[in-house]
């Protein structure tokens, strides 16, 4: 087992926040990150008082565009966050090489995968640091939680000090997470997907469920001072021990999708994948021109197909994007992608019946 359990935080974004602090990112600084991400990332950057600057995705790819980074990069940036979206490795070597020319440290967002690799090297090993998440929808679900890996000895010494400043969350927060986890465990399977989605939204607005996202505000949210809860930690450690089995099952599922989905028909395609990649997906993404029609039909037939990311900064809607310094039109590929992407589950709860059903659904779909 790798050191995924060494530095653990309340959430993945809290880990990112800690890394940024240790790298010396301060109020007024700018940090590069990709559009087509979730609010967790800009939230961490903005919690420091820094500004996220968005790099577009490569055309028909879920990952950062090297060419757009070349246009935007200069010495003023304090960090570059590279995300391996859905578990598909980004062009990390090239991106990191470019950043190093400007003396900018690279942080890898590995929230979607532990073991994906490119050119024989696992993601998470290319930058000074990487971070992980253990919340709903991630490869390992522990409730809420995140962790950090540091690849640089000098930074590790500073990080150790910073880590001392974090404290265990209050018991009420822990209790809420535990309740949600048990509900999740009972219900998180494809047949309950659409039902849960609606219920979770309702509970979130009622303030019962610990929602995925905090409102964007100027003041530092308390979440950014907490470690992982002890119960989430225990669940994480026990599941990390079984990571190999999880990965194996997940590969079987993605191989089934790969070999049974009808890509010839032209209504779905896989996003761009770099050569020499081995992918352990968080979800299996597909690009389609019929996203909304497909989702509507899937819901009617109660088949789990997910819509994330729904916008370039999920789950903000277009009118909210300026709150996280995203300007509509600035990353056209990512904007287009969010309107064309769907994804299929690859987790433990996926059985043969679901796989056959979803493949049949997609292969027979007509506009
Ligand atoms: C889930 C996720 C995070 C972190 O999420 P937390 O809820 O803070 O654990 C960060 N980046 C990406 C791309 C994610 O999907």
Description:
Helices cover 38% and strands 15% of the residues. The chain is built from twelve helices and 14 strands. Helix 1 runs parallel beside helix 2 and helix 1 (12-22) packs across helix 5. The strands form four sheets. Strands 1-10-9-6-5-2-4 form a seven-stranded mixed β-sheet, sandwiched between helices. Strands 8-7-11 form a three-stranded antiparallel β-sheet, with no helix packed on it. It has 367 residues and is α/β, with parallel strands linked by helices. It has helices spanning 12-22, 40-47, 66-72, 92-101, 153-163, 171-187, 193-206, 230-241, 243-260, 291-300, 332-338, 352-364, and strands spanning 7-9, 30-34, 37-38, 51-55, 77-83, 106-109, 117-118, 121-122, 129-133, 146-150, 277-278, 283-287, 313-314, 341-345. The site of pyridoxal-5'-phosphate (PLP) has 15 residues, from helix 1, strand 3 and helix 2.
Q: Approximately how much beta-strand content do the residues carry?
A: 5-15%
Bound molecules: pyridoxal-5'-phosphate
Shape: globular
Number of DSSP-assigned strands: 14
SS-based class: alpha/beta
Largest sheet: 7 strands, mixed
Low-confidence runs: none
Order of helices and strands: EHEEHEHEHEEEEEHHHHHEEHEHEH
Write a concise synopsis of the structure shown.
By secondary structure, the protein is α/β, with parallel strands linked by helices. The protein is 38% helix and 15% strand. The strands form four sheets. A seven-stranded mixed beta sheet has the order 1-10-9-6-5-2-4, sandwiched between helices. Strands 8-7-11 form a three-stranded antiparallel beta sheet, with no helix packed on it.
């Amino acid at each position: 087992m790798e050191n995924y359990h060494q530095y653990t935080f309340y959430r993945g974004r809290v880990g990112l926040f800690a890394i940024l602090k240790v790298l010396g990112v301060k109020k007024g600084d700018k940090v590069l990150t990709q559009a087509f991400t979730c609010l967790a990332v800009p939230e961490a950057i903005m919690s420091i008082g820094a500004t996220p600057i968005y790099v577009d995705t490569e055309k028909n790819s879920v990952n950062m565009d090297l060419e757009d980074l070349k246009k935007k990069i200069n010495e003023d940036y304090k960090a570059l966050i590279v995300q391996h979206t859905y578990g598909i490795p980004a062009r990390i070597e090239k991106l990191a090489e470019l950043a190093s020319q400007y003396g900018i440290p690279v942080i890898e967002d590995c929230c979607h995968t532990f073991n994906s690799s490119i050119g024989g090297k696992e993601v998470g090993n290319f930058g000074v640091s990487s971070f992980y998440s253990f919340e709903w929808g991630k490869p390992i679900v522990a409730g809420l939680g995140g962790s950090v890996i540091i690849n640089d000895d000098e930074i590790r010494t500073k990080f150790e000090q910073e880590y001392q400043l974090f404290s265990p969350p209050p018991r009420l927060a822990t209790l809420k997470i535990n309740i949600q986890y048990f509900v999740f465990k009972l219900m998180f399977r494809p047949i309950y997907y659409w039902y849960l989605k609606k219920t979770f939204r309702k509970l979130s607005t009622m303030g019962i469920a610990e929602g995925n996202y905090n409102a964007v505000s100027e003041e530092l949210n308390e979440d950014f001072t907490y470690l992982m809860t002890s119960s989430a930690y225990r669940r994480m450690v026990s599941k990390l021990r079984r990571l190999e089995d999880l990965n194996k099952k997940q590969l079987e599922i993605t191989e089934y999708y790969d070999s049974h989905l009808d890509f010839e028909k032209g209504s779905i395609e896989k996003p761009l994948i770099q050569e020499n990649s081995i992918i352990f997906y968080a979800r299996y993404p597909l690009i389609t021109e019929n996203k909304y029609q497909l989702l509507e039909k899937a819901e009617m037939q109660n088949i789990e197909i997910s819509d994330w990311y729904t916008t370039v900064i999920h789950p903000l809607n277009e009118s909210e994007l300026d709150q996280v310094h995203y300007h509509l039109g600035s990353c056209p590929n990512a904007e287009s992608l969010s309107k064309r992407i769907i994804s299929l589950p690859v987790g433990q709860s996926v059985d043969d019946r679901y796989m056959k059903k979803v493949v049949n659904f997609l292969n027979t779909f007509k506009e």
